[in-house]
Design brief:
Number of helices: 15
Structural class: alpha+beta
Strand order of the largest sheet: 8-9-10-11
Helix content: 40-55%
Largest sheet: 4 strands, antiparallel
CATH class of the largest domain: Mainly Alpha
CATH superfamily of the largest domain: Hypothetical protein af1432
């Protein structure tokens, strides 16, 4: 269900649903309540010094959707069935598997000096590897992946899961995917060495605290290297997952030529997870906005890893109902690996097919 929210006109975005009428000095209605804003309307509001605007946030009413779907005209129903293309095989992790892997990661973080650390790591990673590498899954529904915050052990499971799916599309072989999974699960192991007052601070870190936090990649690398039982790739994924292609990352500012492919892949998964995570000092970005932001990070992220991420995610699963920027409800009938943001949909009331990716007439139409 949705809610009414007052925001500054400066922060308006195309596709937002306005929850008030805009009238001029003579009382003439310029923008109707319930309209989905376009760029022209937003520019008008901002140029004319409008301050706060009430918008409507939230999902369409499920009862309204059910009622519309029950009464679809035969033509629309047939068009949906005819146009429907099953999504690519998606990874499916049972709740018990996620729980066991998460508990295993917690054990590893709490027992970094244990003699059976490597054996325990392989056991923990084994379940995830079996669920992903040994399946035919080549995509992930990112609506299901995010149920954690940065400092829970589920975060490591989320990042490792996403990284392995990205790795499949990237072209890694089975052993590389296994190593990538291990590195993804342990990428934040060094945080076990960060003081709790820094790790669990309920606010933004100051410069000194952030400098301490940045050492977690080195701490994790050293913990694993001392065991002398992990491959160079696993170690580099842990050490370099905060390095950037432009050389402005940490811990050492490695340039693109010196960042391991595992780190490049884990970095994309970790950045996405950070964007959709709510913190005490910032709100979580929507999944759509996070994907768009990833697409813009061409200086930070490796293009091949970014492309593999974009090709492996499903943002709007087939059969889901979305709202278009026109206000129309539509059913998703086909996703395109080339662009997760632009599926093919069919309007539930108009029975019109919109190929958001290929039809030039749909260029200004977006899912909100």
């Amino acid at each position: 269900m949705g809610k009414r929210k007052l925001i500054s006109a400066r922060t308006l975005k195309r596709g937002m649903k306005i929850d008030q009428a805009i009238v001029d000095s003579r009382g003439r209605q310029l923008i109707a309540k319930g309209a989905y804003l376009d760029d022209f309307q937003i520019e008008y509001l901002q140029k004319h010094g409008v301050g706060g605007i009430y918008i409507f946030e939230g999902e369409p009413d499920p009862e309204e959707i059910s009622e519309i779907e029950r009464n679809l005209p035969a033509y629309t129903r047939e068009l949906i069935e005819k146009s429907r293309v099953e999504d690519r095989a998606k990874v499916a992790l049972h709740t018990e598997v996620i729980k066991r892997v998460g508990e295993g990661i917690q054990y590893l973080f709490d027992n970094t000096s244990s003699e059976n650390f490597t054996e325990a790591t392989n056991n923990v990673a084994g379940e995830l590897v079996k669920a992903i590498v040994d399946s035919n899954a080549v995509a992930i529904d990112i609506n299901l992946i995010k149920v954690s915050d940065e400092y829970t052990f589920k975060h490591s499971v989320d990042v490792a899961t996403m990284a392995m799916i990205i790795g499949k599309v990237y072209g890694l072989d089975r052993e590389e995917l296994r190593e990538l999974g291990v590195s993804g699960l342990l990428h934040d192991l060094g945080k076990s060495q960060i003081p709790n007052e820094v790790l669990n601070k309920p606010g933004k870190l100051d410069d000194n605290e952030f400098a301490i936090m940045k050492q977690h990649t080195l701490f994790g690398f050293k913990l694993l290297k001392e065991k002398n039982q992990f491959s160079e790739g696993v170690l580099m994924g842990v050490l370099q997952h905060h390095e950037k292609m432009n050389g402005k990352g940490y811990p050492v500012g490695s340039d693109a030529d010196h960042i391991h492919k595992y780190a490049r892949i884990i970095s994309v998964a970790d950045v996405y997870d950070a964007l959709v995570t709510e913190r005490p000092y910032k709100k979580a970005f929507s999944k759509r906005d996070a994907v768009e932001m990833i697409m813009a990070m061409t200086d930070d992220l490796e293009m091949n890893a970014m492309t593999a991420f974009l090709q492996s995610i499903i943002l709007y699963p087939v059969d889901s109902v979305v709202t278009l920027s026109t206000g129309e409800l539509a059913k998703v009938v086909e996703n395109h690996p080339q662009n997760a943001l632009r599926p093919t949909v069919i309007g539930l009331k108009t029975g019109k097919l919109y190929n958001l990716m290929e039809d030039i007439k749909c260029a200004s139409l977006v899912i909100v």
